[in-house]
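Throughout our pipeline, every protein is held as a single compact record rather than as scattered files. Such a record has a labelled line for the sequence and another for the backbone structure tokens. This encoding replaces a full spatial description with a residue-level series of whole-number codes. For reference, a complete record is included directly beneath this paragraph.
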Amino acid sequence: MIIIHPGAPKTGTTALQNFLFDASDRLREIGIEFPDCGLSRSGGHKDFRVSLNRSSLSDPYFDKIRSDFNGVFETTKDVLISCELLWSVDPRRIIESYPFLKDAHILVYLRRQDSMIESHYAQKVKGGVTELLPKEFYRKNMLDYDYDAFCNNWAEVFGSKNVHPRIYESSKKNGIVSDFLVKGIGSLLASKGRDYRSDFKKLIEVASDNARKKSNLRIHPSLTKTLLALNRTSADAQTKEQLRRELLKDFRLWNSLEKKENIFSESLLKKITKDFEESNSKVKSKYFPSARRPNLFSN
């Protein structure tokens, strides 16, 4: 079985991919290949994502990347691909570049849109990627967080039975790495008669340590607002980057502040929740029909 994990962003992917990177040899011993082709510690299979771009077709480096991945897919029984950058890709490009993946299973984590978009926005501000105000950012990017549209796009390519969404808020209670290994890929592989879950459980303690040490921690809302003001100045890029690094250095100062405030206003958070009610209801009906909770993200 080939399993593709396309995120979503801000659902523990940094901690998860750090763990998978460190545990790749042990996973291989168990029977699961986490390919090292173009692999990065905290970004997963970034080169797999770039290899889907048509602009990479004439690049010898990505010719080799595609060749290496295809070799793994054709010769290995159980393979895991993980990269949150796949969240925004057209899944048809995956089949065009890697026809062997037509029967792949898609394991994706979904997070409440209000907290996910706010967190994603903070990350973009932190990296100096956006200078948009919260409402502008949401208006420009809201379609990226329509989970029903996302699942439909991937189901059209891989089949609805091969798309497996999980709820981030529920999954993180016991640790996202633990959930991913045991209830995510572990359950999928067990359904095919290959039960690695007892082996995975032996890795959970190490996974918890890695998740605590290397996860992409959320920065304080006041720091996010300060960085946004920096991004919107007319200073040159080099000056902005130097100031950004200085601001990010003193985590003790920022962490000593109260964290009750939000980056987004209450009215914007409520609007986001309202905007996605219908989409989330469709996802619940399709993928969680027996769940007793009244909506997709209820406890």
Q: What stands out?
A: The chain has 16 helices and four strands. Residues 103 and 158 are 6 Å apart (CA to CA).
